Amino acid sequence: MQKILWIFVLLLPAINASADLEWGGGVSAVVFPDYVGSDEYQTLILPTPYFRYTSENLTVDRNLIQTKFFEQGPVASELSLGGSIPVDSDKNRARRGMDDLDWIGEIGPSLQYYWLGNWAADNALLLDAPLRVAASSDLSSAQWRGFTFEPKVRWRRFYPFHGLTVRPQITLGALAASADYHAYLYGVKSDDATASRPAYTAQGGFAGWQLSYSTVLQWRHYVLAGALRYINTDDAIFADSPLHKEGENILAGIMAAYVF
User: Considering only 55-59, 138-142, 203-207, 246-250, which range has the smallest mean pLDDT?
Assistant: First the structure.
């Protein structure tokens, strides 16, 4: 159940339905690394509920809330959310013997500049720069984990074709985070150091770059969504961490749903 978040992180940002309310269900399959920079992957196939409400200033679905703070000409701002799922360190070779990674939640404002379209437009080209604070939690307590910054260029489009709608989206951007955030994911305390995993103090700064593509096809009540994300951390500030095992990660997912 914890892994469901990856499916929605991959697929739901691409779904921009025109109806005010849509709900239904389907099945999803997703492939993802244990964490960015890990060389171990998981594959998950499971039933997936579908819910989405849209209005002029608010979008709500099962794992995403977007609300517009302001819009003035080509400039807009909205609430940005992010996060990652827990990792059982005993099931990851690089982290074996270390504390598990808890849920990470991120929240903050995103400043946007539109070269084409606007916040509500299906056809848009924009610069999106979210700055979010982060905290980890085991659902009984929470701890501060610094902040993340992920500026990116995003293009989205809407194509109607004889009852079929196609909504592609492409995103290219950089990743950055504070020392606290990187220390939680890639730091190694002296108590956790081994012959093959030396102690490591993480620093804040550049965390790599990402390129993603997603497409949603909808025909009547049927929705098919697919997404592919490439993340490169070869030149990240934490690239020399003993927990950084892979400089290139691929996340992929597909969802088929029936919408009532």
Answer: 55-59
Q: What is the mean pLDDT of the chain?
A: 88
CB 82, CB 24: distance < 8 Å: no
Output phi, psi for 127, to 5 deg. -100, 125
Q: Where are the domains of the chain?
A: 4-26+52-217+235-250
CA-CA distance, 158 to 121, in Å (whole number)? 9
Q: How far apart are CA 212 and CA 155, in angstroms?
A: 11
pTM (2 d.p.): 0.86
Residue whose pair of structure tokens reads 């910054």 in the numeric block: 149
Q: Give the whole-angstrom CA distance, residue 77 versus residue 112.
A: 6
Q: Which residues pair with 164 in a beta bridge?
A: 161, 219
Report the C-alpha gap between 236 and 244 in whole angstroms.
10
For residue 17, is pLDDT > 50? no
pLDDT band at 15 (very low <50, low <70, confident <90, very high): very low
For 182-211, the DSSP string reads: HHHHH-B-GGG--SSS--B----EEEEEEE
Closest CA to 186 of 4, 35, 61: 35
Element holding 29 (H helix, E strand)? strand 21-33
Phi first, then psi: what are they for 138, rounded to 5°?
-100, 15
Q: If you write DSSP's letter for every residue of 143-165 in order, what string do you get? A: EEEEEEE--EEEEE--EEETTEE
CA distance 205 to 217: 38
Instruction: Please count the other Cβ atoms lying within 10 Å of the Cβ belonging to residue 155.
Output: 16
Q: Is 225:215 a contact under the CB 8 Å cutoff? A: yes
